[in-house]
Design a protein that fits this description.
Structural class: alpha/beta
Helix content: 40-55%
Largest sheet: 4 strands, mixed
Distance between the termini: 10 Å
Number of strands: 6
Radius of gyration: 18 Å
């Protein structure tokens, strides 16, 4: 989902260990981890003004994230609760599908309380606090995005294990790797998997990937891999379109997608494919 490895019970155990808060809810990160946050933040900040959607940029301002220090989740919660009724939930690197959907259904966004090592600066299989907070939390200040996330959580919580596999594709091609395509065909990013990755930001805005207009059944039929740049992205025409998706009969689309089957993948096969 954020990164599928986080929510897949079959995933390999991560090397990272989430940091635990003290009795006051404060997490003490060492200096070198704050330095990693600073480096990641500064490296991506230059791309945001050019490529991130306006709602994300406003959310980043509203959250008041420090460019120099890993934020405390309580500070993020103060803003989100007031703006959209959401809060964060500190989690280890691996949680189950069930727990993931439970959290979203209760307007709690899972955040793994560790940050990547310098050895995995450019690509991380497990979603860390930079991916979760920098990539996703700014848009949780937006009504349409937060409404979609809440509805998705409730839908996934009620779904079967088989149907959750298809719903994961909806999350992947929206919350994680979603794009906005304006009437002049210009592109903006709202997917947190792109926003937290300088490499994928430049790739997604380049000429190599295929950009398809959002179609719910098509999205549910599109396979993906978590360990490559995405060969295809789905674009909505504005962030408000997420409201329209919420009103769609998503589970009927799931059933239709199951009958039609998957599209042929646009990448080389690998053993671990979603």
């Amino acid at each position: 989902m954020h990164r599928q490895v986080k929510y897949n019970n079959m995933s390999k155990e991560t090397q990272y260990v989430a940091r635990l808060p003290d009795e006051n809810g404060h997490i003490a990160y060492p200096t070198e981890e704050h330095e990693t946050w600073q480096a990641l933040y500064s490296r991506q900040l230059g791309n945001l003004a050019k490529y991130a959607c306006a709602e994300y940029q406003q959310g980043l301002i509203d959250l008041g994230l420090s460019p120099n220090r890993i934020p405390q989740l309580s500070d993020i919660d103060n803003v989100l609760l007031e703006m959209t009724g959401w809060k964060t939930a500190a989690v280890p690197a691996l949680i189950s599908f069930e727990r993931f959907f439970q959290l979203l259904a209760h307007k709690e966004f899972p955040v793994a309380t560790f940050i990547r090592s310098k050895d995995e600066f450019d690509y991380l299989r497990e979603p860390d606090i930079f991916h979760e907070v920098f990539g996703h939390c700014p848009l949780l200040t937006n009504r349409s995005f937060s409404k979609f996330s809440h509805a998705y959580g409730k839908l996934g919580l009620a779904a079967s294990k088989e149907d959750r596999v298809l719903l994961a594709r909806l999350y992947w091609f929206t919350v994680e790797f979603g794009l906005i395509q304006k009437s002049d065909m210009s592109l903006q990013i709202y997917g947190g998997g792109i926003l937290s990755s300088p490499g994928e930001t430049l790739y997604a805005m380049g000429k190599e990937p295929e950009i398809r207009p959002f179609n719910l059944v098509d999205v549910l039929r599109t396979p993906y891999r978590i360990d490559i740049m995405q060969p295809v992205y789905y674009a909505i025409n504005s962030l408000d379109y997420l409201d329209e998706i919420v009103e769609m009969d998503i589970m009927s689309a799931v059933n239709q997608a199951k009958k039609l089957g998957l599209f042929a993948p646009l990448y080389e096969p690998k053993s671990k494919v979603s």
